[in-house]
Every structure is written in C-alpha cells, then in structure tokens.
Amino acid sequence: MAKNDNSKGGKGAKGAAAGKGGKGGAAGKGGKGGAPAKGGKGGGAPQQKGGGKGGKAGGAAAARQAAAQREHTGAGLPVAAPRLKQYYEQTVRGRLAEQFGLANVHQIPTMEKIVVNCGVGEAIKQPRVLDTVVEELAIITGQRPVRRKAKKSIANFGLREGQEIGAMVTLRGARMWEFLDRLIAVAIPRIRDFRGLSTRAFDGRGNYSMGVKEQMMFPEINYDQVEQIHGMDITFVTSATRDDIALALLRELGMPFRGDEKPLVPRPDRMAGQLTETGAAA
Predict the structure, then answer these.
(1) Three-class SS of residue 88?
(2) Residue 250: how many CB atoms within 10 A of its CB?
(3) Is 236 among the domain residues?
(4) CA 54, CA 28: separation in Å to the nearest integer?
C-alpha cells in the first residue's frame, strides 16, 4: 500500500504539494491555479515595468486638465474692463468718424464677435485627437468649445454623417476684446518669419479671416504637453458694411497688416490701454 501511495505519485499527491507545477496546489515553479513563485498563468497580479503609451498619454491629459483648472493669482480681485475696448471707445471711434465723415455714432463700426474654428480630420480614425484640440482651444480662448459634426457622409474619406470632426468657439463681449488684445500684442509677434497679415482676406461684407498654422504661438500652450501640431481659422466679424471701413477699424485696433511701416501694437506696460507705434518685428 505504501508503494502504491508514494512510488508512482497519484494525482492527489501532485495536486496537493507539487514540486514543479501542479494544477491545483501551491505550485513551486509555474502552477496554473495557485500562487506561482516565478511565472504561473493564473496566480497573482503580474508586475508592470512601465505604463507604456497609454500611461504617458494619460499623464499628459491629467497635466493639461490640472493646468486648465488652476486658479490664477487675481481670482479674488474685481474683473477689470478690457483695455483694448477702452482704447476703442476713447480713441478709435473718434478717428473713424473723422476719417469717413460719419455723423451718426451708430454708423461707426465696431467688433461684433470672433469665431475660432479648428477642423480635425484625424478624428475620423483617432477620436482622442479631438479631445486634445478641445482642451487646447478652451485654454486659449477661456471658453468651452462646441464640437462640430459632419453634415453628410463621404465614402472616400471614411466619414459618416453626425461624426465629430472639429471644434468651434464664438467669442463676444469682454472675452472677445481680451482675446483680440492677446492675439495682437503677444501671439502674432511670436509667429516665425512674420511679414504682416494679408489685406486680401476680406469677404466683401466687412469681415476678415486669417489662418494660424501652429497653436504654439499662444503663450497659454505648454510645449511639453503638446501631442500634435494643428492650426485654426480665426474670423473677425465687424459691423462695417464695406471692406475699407473694416480694414481701417482693424488697423486702428493694432492689426499688423502687410505694407504698414509702423503698425500700431498694444503695449502692456502703458496705462489705460494706450498704443504706441513700434515695428512689427519688435
């Protein structure tokens, strides 16, 4: 009986305390069901050496979200009026009325809204790219973007109707003036090899559009957190009915158009939003 129990080694002996790899017991080397010492299939949780691509992307997204939700130093202070709006009301309105002979104050053109649009064709196959673009637009403009959907299906592009392929932000009021001020004073001078904005981008109804190739021209974007370079379209909608009046309005506000020897550029160090004549390169 002892010979039958120990010499051949029945299934019970192997399962109870297996030396190399029993299926049901505490395996020494690599059992399937127990707690393996070296590399069992069904034992404890495997140790991970690195987070991989998913871990890096998740860390970058968390860092962007933390930067977007971080409160600025003047959060408790009263909101100041946009300095570019003050400059428009105190200086630009009078100059435009005198230049075009506008007797009625309601005929003087003004800014109505600014539309920032970004199309993301890569979102068809990689929806995560659109999430990154939406976060960056929110940081740049200070307003939550609206996700735009495809109006019709295009088989050649693999596009289906209703699929999200872009984001858009419409700025009005104080946010519009603050964004325009930052764009003219800080963002446009950071464009590489900048030679001035074209004067041929008006639509005939007093609206102007410009394209941006890189979102890193805005100082709000952190270089270390950028996953992909993308551009955007910025449209300035004015109350002017003619292109020449709209051009004069934008030029007085400080837009550096091509051909201007000394365009007006806002200076943050001047009080009450005063503008000074400086070179476009400065």
Answers:
(1) helix
(2) 23
(3) yes
(4) 34
